[in-house]
Amino acid sequence: MALPVKLICRTGQVHADGTCSIFVQYCCNESQKPLFGTDVKIPPTYWDKAGRCISERLPANHGDYNELNDELKRLKKIVEDIVTYAGLKKIPLEARAQFAKTHFSPTFDFNDIETKEKEAAEQQETEKKNRINVYYQFDEYIKSKKRKVSKATLTVYGNVKSHLLAFEVFRGQEISFDNFDFSFYEDFVDYLTFEHIHIRRKTVQTGLKLNTIGKTIKHLRGFIKDRVKRKIVKPIDLSDFKIPEEESDAIYLTYEEIAKIYQADLSEHPYLIEYRDLFVLACLTGLRFSDFSTLRPEDLQRDMLYKKQEKSDHWVIIPLRHEAKLIFTRQFRDRIPELTNPEFNRHIKTIGKLAGITQMIKFSYKKGNQNIVVTKPKYDWITSHTARRSFCTNEFLASTPVELIMKISGHKRTKDFYKYIRITPEEAANKIKELWLARNDMKLIKESVTEMELQYN
């Protein structure tokens, strides 16, 4: 039985030069009849419909009819061979038209089809591996989050990926989605606790703090759950991926200490003045570094700062104290200095030292089953985030309603807000005493003289 491949001339579609194109047609089925171009064109009068070839009457100026017919037979044979090959490979009938279109060309070499098939299979295998590759998927996950989270959170995602890569190198075994079980969790946490080497440090330091490890596990879980939810990987049991955490030690600065910093004599260090003023502005507004370092003149309206927080994408409106307004209008009304967080942290430690914030402070943190104790002067504990923590704590101690403080700080949950409050047990006791005095003068019974007092007298 003849193959459903034939030569046709579209005599009804005449070009401007009076010629028509000749095609090879593959009649795969009623709906699929693809055409394959031959680059042969003749006047329609010289097409032999019965013989499906060019008539011997073709004028010489259009070419030699024998040579043209030989070329048409060659191209028709290419299509026939491709269709035959598709049948031998048991390619479904409905897919053979596309298969022929993919592989046909006027310069086709039948031997190339095996090479093309092999290359296509290798490409499919590579794409399949990429689809289930942990790091490829992590990059895709980060891309999907770019318009939903802050730059700082994207950086955290990148750090999690870096930790996975470092762990992979450390244990000398490729990490795949199949690895994410309890044994992996234990080994990964152990590596982060004792073996992970900090990069960009002058001296070699190993091991991360417990809360940093907890943040890594938290975001790793979020990534895996997202990939499972999108049905990219099969469901993974993460019930044993606990998030380790401990209450972090951190300082806050009292209003008296903030005033000492604001009034510090920096005449011998004039380059520190704008860092000092920006830090004090942050202490009086509760803004994060990512927000107070990107303030613009138009953010000040009617003695209020209007700022959209980068991390939470939440608008806050902050009234300015006298000193804060003075700093903003005098120092930063036209320009906020461009600076990095590490640079800022380094300079404000120096400023804190010059301001006499030298009280020795002892903090501790967990590393495995060890309790690491670190003692440093208070100025050495100051970071850009100290400003935000100081604002929340000072306003809390001043009895400002928590709900109002949260409107300025941008906290959405009370639980998160209270993590910022840093007061000593003595400060807590004094605060309670102050409330009790205001409530009933520290007495249980309101009468001026109780029977018990009379007995003691």
UniProtKB/TrEMBL annotation:
SUPFAM superfamilies: DNA breaking-rejoining enzymes (SSF56349)
GO molecular function terms attached to this record: DNA binding
UniProt GO BP: DNA integration; DNA recombination
Keywords (A to Z) from UniProt: DNA recombination, DNA-binding
Domain spans labelled Tyr recombinase: 248-433
Highest taxon, organism lineage: Bacteria
Protein family: Belongs to the 'phage' integrase family.
Protein name according to UniProt: Site-specific recombinase XerD
